[in-house]
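Renewal narrative, Specific Aim 1. Our central claim is that a sequence can be written position by position from structural information alone. The example that follows is taken directly from our test logs and has not been curated for this report. It begins with the C-alpha cells describing the chain, in the order in which they were read.
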C-alpha cells in the first residue's frame, strides 16, 4: 500500500534557497563547459572533498547537463577516498591524492574528463598544511595533471575560490587549442 502525503497547511514557512549562479562567474563557466563538451562528445565527472559537491552543483544546472555530466563522488572521509576512488593510503591533502581521485572518478563513472579537489578549508591546519592549501587533479586525454593553489579567506571563501578554479580547469582542458 502506498501513502501519499500532501501538505495543505497555509501557515507553512516559505524557504528561500540559494541558486547555483550566486557564485560570480560560475554559471558562465559551467555553460561554456557544457557547450564545449557537447561539441566534443565528452562526458564529465567530479571527485570532491573540500568543496562538498559545490562543483557538481554548478555543472548540474548547466545547459543540457543530463547529456554530458556523468556525476560526482563527494568523498570527505579518507576511507571513502581509499575504498571508492582507489586513493593510495596516506596523506589526503597531496598531489598523489588529487591525481588518484581524478583517475578514480573518471574510471568509476566512465568519464572522458574529470576534476578532483582535496584541501584544507580552515580555519585550522590539517595534515601540516595551512588553510587554503588545495590540490587539484584533472584527468583528460588519458593523462592526469595536478596543480597546487593556496587561497586566502575564510572557509566559505576558500570553497568558492576552489569551485571556480576547478571550473576554469575543466574549461581549459576541453577548450580547443
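The sequence written for that structure reads:
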Amino acid at each position: 500500500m502506498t501513502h501519499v502525503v500532501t501538505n495543505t497547511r497555509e501557515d507553512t514557512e516559505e524557504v528561500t534557497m540559494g541558486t547555483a549562479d550566486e557564485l560570480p562567474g560560475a554559471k558562465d563557466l559551467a555553460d561554456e563547459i557544457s557547450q564545449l563538451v557537447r561539441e566534443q562528445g565528452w562526458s564529465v565527472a567530479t571527485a570532491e572533498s573540500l568543496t562538498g559537491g559545490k562543483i557538481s552543483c554548478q555543472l548540474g544546472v548547466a545547459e543540457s547537463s543530463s547529456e554530458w555530466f556523468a556525476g560526482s563522488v563527494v568523498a570527505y572521509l579518507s576511507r571513502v577516498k581509499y575504498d571508492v576512488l582507489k586513493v593510495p593510503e596516506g596523506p589526503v591533502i597531496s598531489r598523489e591524492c588529487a591525481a588518484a581521485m581524478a583517475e578514480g572518478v573518471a574510471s568509476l563513472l566512465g568519464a572522458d574528463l574529470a576534476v578532483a579537489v582535496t584541501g584544507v578549508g580552515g580555519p585550522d591546519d590539517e595534515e601540516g598544511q595551512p588553510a587554503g592549501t588545495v590540490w587539484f587533479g584533472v584527468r583528460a586525454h588519458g593523462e592526469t595533471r595536478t596543480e597546487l593553489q593556496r587561497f586566502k579567506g575564510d572557509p566559505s571563501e576558500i570553497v568558492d575560490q576552489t569551485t571556480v578554479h576547478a571550473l576554469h580547469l575543466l574549461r581549459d582542458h576541453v577548450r580547443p587549442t
